[in-house]
Write the structure tokens for this entry.
Amino acid sequence: MTVTKSKPEINLLDSAKRVLRLESEGLQALSENLDQSFVHALDLLSAMSGRCVVSGMGKSGHIARKIASTMASTGLPALFVHPGEASHGDLGMITEQDVIIALSNSGETVELADLVAYAKRFEIPLIGITGKSPSALASAATVALVLPAIDEACPMGLAPTTSTTVMLALGDALAVAMLERKGFSPDDFHVLHPGGKLGNRLLKVSDIMHGGDELPLVAADMAMSEAIVIMTAKSFGCLGIVGQDGALQGILTDGDLRRHMGSQLMTQTTGDVMTAGVRFISANALASEALRTMNSKAITTLFVVEDSRPIGIVHIHDCLRAGVA
């Protein structure tokens, strides 16, 4: 076996830097050359009642898969269809309510021909992403998004490098612009990303709080002898003190008990011993915000309040068990 000697390290670094420079220049050129065709593509996607079908062959196919995945995860129904499989039955996955995005740097990819013809036959909107105009894809497309003239980072100009980077970025731009146009919120994002660390970060207080009979609530005029029994049974290490109108007036904690420890404690009421000005949080707040508040204030519980009335309680252990960090 012949072993090829590696080039000096400085040359390899220069090569890597050249790749990054060329690809960044490609992205800059793309940004500067975006025009109303991009807006027209967004109009097609906004008007569709079906799904966005993304397709491409070879390296463009890999980019198409990622674009479809990004769109689906940001609230735009999307799927990838392989152009070769489309010619052997998968065209049936595409309906007249869909929009097709076809990727081809040359604009002449033979494998896309049947997909393009199908779009034309059934008047399915076609967005073409291509590096060449005129080309077969650009001519057939309802909207053609033509990439700027850019050099591939491959020194032979053969391997798709800069062109695929620019295609990927253009797909991200479409997905994010649609996200903003639709008003896609963190709540919507959480619905589509319930698993993993990202899903944990998007958990709401309402997802982990305790409510109903678990709430440790007592009246402000309750005798301490009775309140301590309830406090022990509820196991949160605190009591919420509410007035006659149900509004949260204060909190009674283990610390309050220690500060008032004495022969008169059992003859006092909860209103005498409680700490006023209790900290609370909204049910719609992120669980990570509740954890941050508890850590910063060195407390272990927060009451969840709506219209001044306690509707739940969240303990720091609830956040930790849910994987919130």
